[in-house]
Amino acid sequence: MLRILIVDDTNLIRQALNICFQAESDLKIVGTARNGKEAIAKIVKFNPDIVVMDMDMPEMDGLTATTIISEYISRTKVVIFSSYSHQNYIERALRVGASGYLLKSQPVDELPEAIRLIHHHDSPFARPF
C-alpha cells in the first residue's frame, strides 16, 4: 500500500486528489497540507511514501519544501503536481530532488497510475511532454 500526503494551497485540489486516490485499493491518503511547512511536519508525523506537492504555495513553496525533504527525509518521494509545463520548471523541480512531475491538466483518471509508475519505477514523468 502506497501512503500519500497531498500538499496544495487550494482546498478543491486537495479534495479532488483525495477522492481520486481513495478509489484505489493500493493507495492510502495519510493526510493533507496547505503549504510546504505543514507538509514537512506531516511527513514526520505520517511517514508517507509519496508526497504530491504543488509548486506555488504561501509560507513555503513546493520547491523549497522538496529541497528540505530530499535532503533530510530521503525515504519519501516528492512528486510535483503543477500547472506549469515549461521545461525550466520541470528541470528545476527534478534538480531540487523531486522524483517526478505531473501536470494538473492531465486527466484525473491517469493520476493513480502515474503515482505508481513514479514510485515503483523511478520514472520522473507519467507521460512525455
Give a structural overview:
The protein is an alpha/beta fold and 129 residues long. The protein has a single domain (2-121), classed as Rossmann fold. Helix content is 42%, strand content 21%. The chain has five helices and five strands, in the order βαβαβαβαβα. It has helices spanning 11-22, 36-46, 62-72, 87-95, 111-121, and strands at residues 2-7, 27-33, 50-53, 77-82, 100-103. The chain has a five-stranded parallel β-sheet with strand order 2-1-3-4-5, sandwiched between helices. Helix 1 (11-22) links the parallel strand 1 (2-7) and strand 2. The termini are far apart. The model has no long low-confidence stretch (mean pLDDT 92).
Secondary-structure element sequence? EHEHEHEHEH
Mean pLDDT over the full residue set: 92
In CATH, the architecture is 3-Layer(aba) Sandwich
CATH class: Alpha Beta
Described by its quaternary structure, the protein is single chain
Percent of residues in helices comes to 40-55%
- Radius of gyration over C-alpha positions, nearest whole angstrom: 13 Å
Structural class: alpha/beta
* Superfamily (CATH H level) name: Response regulator
Number of helices: 5
N/C terminus separation = 28 Å
* Biggest sheet, spatial arrangement of strands: 2-1-3-4-5
- Catalogue the unreliable spans: none
Number-wise, the strands total 5
How much beta, percentage-wise? 15-25%
The largest sheet, given as strand count, sense and whether it forms a barrel, is: 5 strands, parallel
Count of discrete domains: 1
User: What shape does the CA trace take?
Assistant: globular
Named CATH topology: Rossmann fold
